[in-house]
Specification:
139 residues; 1 helix; mainly beta; globular; disordered N terminus; four-stranded antiparallel beta sheet
Length: 139
């Protein structure tokens, strides 16, 4: 990494190629990488290959996190004007909503046992500052 930065600082510019992409918030399990791109979640094999779109509903999905067992993805989504917490199987499918209230909820991980999703929200705060909260994966 340091060598790449040094070479770039010596006049060599990074070439993103003809189709630059901004893939954000990658998360991995043993075989798959899931990331956010263009407001949707995508997956690709850790071996490489073509990415597969996991979500396509109107709205924006972001901040994916694999469950500890690698079978479920938790993510934040804005489907009806508010950002809430959702989960879905690794292969895609219909997202299951876990939170529903006016404050924005941003997924930040899972509890180690995989039974709860950790997220930030200002819903129970007496100020505008967010707090860490958890919600059962059962909803």
């Amino acid at each position: 990494m340091l060598a790449a930065l040094v070479s770039m600082s010596q006049g060599q510019a990074f070439d993103p190629g003809p189709n630059p992409l901004l893939m954000r918030h990658p998360t991995m399990n043993a075989t798959t990488i899931v990331f956010q791109f263009a407001g949707d979640l995508w997956s690709v094999s850790r071996q490489g290959g073509e990415a597969k779109r996991l979500t396509s509903a109107p709205g924006t999905e972001s901040d994916p996190y694999f469950s500890p067992d690698g079978q479920t993805i938790a993510f934040s989504a804005q489907y009806d004007g508010n950002v809430d917490v959702y989960i879905m199987p690794v292969g895609g499918g219909v997202p299951k909503r876990l939170t529903a209230h006016p404050a924005a909820d941003t997924v930040v991980g899972w509890t180690p046992d995989g039974k709860r999703v950790i997220f930030t929200s200002s819903m129970l705060s007496n100020t505008d500052y967010e707090r860490l909260l958890t919600v059962s994966k059962e909803g």
